[in-house]
Amino acid sequence: MIVGGGVVGISIALHAARRTDPLSEPVMLLERDVIGNSPSSCSAAVLGQFYGSTQASGMARDSLRYYAGLEGKTGRSLGFLRSGVLTLAKGSSEKARQRLRELVEMQDSIGIRVECADSEQIRELCPGIQISDEEIAAWEPTAGCLDPQLAVESLTALARNRGAVIREGNPVEKILVEGGRVVGIESDDGRIDCDQVVVAAGPWTRSILEELGVSLPIECVLAEHYYIGSQEEHQEEVRKQGVLSIASPEASGATGWYSRESLNLEGGETALEERHSEEAAPIKTAHPVLTDPKTGFYVRCDPLQSRVSVGRRGGDFIPISSPDDYDPNVGPAFSAWARAVLESRLPHYAEQPDLGAETGLFTRTPDNQPLLGKVEGVEGLYIACGFSGHSFTMAPSVGEGIAQMLMGEPVSAFDEEFYSPQRYL
Fold this sequence. Notes:
It is a single chain. The strands form 5 sheets. Strands 4, 5, 6, 13, 14, 17, 18, 19, 20 and 21 form a 10-stranded mixed beta sheet that branches. A 6-stranded mixed beta sheet has the order 8-2-1-12-23-22. The chain is an alpha/beta fold. It is globular, with a radius of gyration of 21 Å. The protein contains 8 helices and 23 strands. A hairpin with a 6-residue loop joins strand 22 (371-374) and strand 23 (381-385). The chain has helices at residues 7-17, 54-74, 94-109, 119-125, 148-161, 205-210, 332-345, 391-406; strands at 2-3, 28-30, 46-47, 85-88, 115-117, 137-140, 144-145, 165-167, 172-178, 181-187, 190-193, 197-199, 219-228, 243-247, 255-257, 282-284, 289-292, 297-302, 307-312, 318-319, 354-364, 371-374, 381-385. The chain has a domain at 1-82 and 143-218 and 366-425: FAD/NAD(P)-binding domain, CATH 3.50.50.
């Protein structure tokens, strides 16, 4: 039983269903609302691999490879755009530059395609960027981003084709425990017996666990969203986590393929004739995904919406006590900040018009690392939560690793000890 239908829960269902018989060992997922609801719908779905640890970078590497190959193998589009990801050093000091070089070397050592770009190369990759001659960046040419809603829809279809039972509008009221082990759940549809439960419910995870007397430092935070653009089609509600979106200038530079219609065929995760980018017209982007740790923002082109999206990279988010009761209004401070940081690096966006504002939710932990694995003291209980806005980056690796746990297999998809919830229990 999987609780929560975001990208992480769906990935767990897909990977678990691949290992089981749908009649003798059914995989079931219950979602309180609709599949892909917040926080997955609020994600920028950037697939960068530039993290500060081999554990996180390795998971991001494997997840990127999984996404990049899935469309050709299954015929289902994820809206995958290989735009490249450019991460600036945290300042122009020698200390900041040396730290970035060390991380580049670390990631190169685990098979990530990454290189150190000097200021001239940065300007070529990201035309119009304002940087000093001393600044450097990490360049990931094979990285990129997804369309979050389309990706969740496609992964859900693949999970169902593998035999997973997925029910929407069915909140879990209680996990049933007898004699220290899971025996079932209570939902709107009544009791369902099961001996394993994975809680991947994002902002609702903490309250579900507290009903069992399990207290973990999962913080739910509010991320503000600010959109910019003018065309009527931009009025479609597209949520991005902590995002400022700006109508895209004339495209140039990085290319990828990005189509809701292309490769959206029926069928499960079976080998189809491999399809390449010539089946969908390449989409040019104005520049790669750009992340700026010093200023605290990222910017990604969103060709599906003909716009550019900007949001916080780290920074201060507003903690909230309950995901069911918070003020969704966005104040002017975030809008002003987003405008200022974007224009400080890419001043040619200054004339782009506003689109509107919105909010979203995500969860984080004190060390900004997710909680993955068994919850000791309750046999059969597992957790996957606290991704700090990086759920898409890690979801395939999390799905594989949790499925390995459920099947009693050795865990190879992530470092079980590093991410264990036991570090807080």
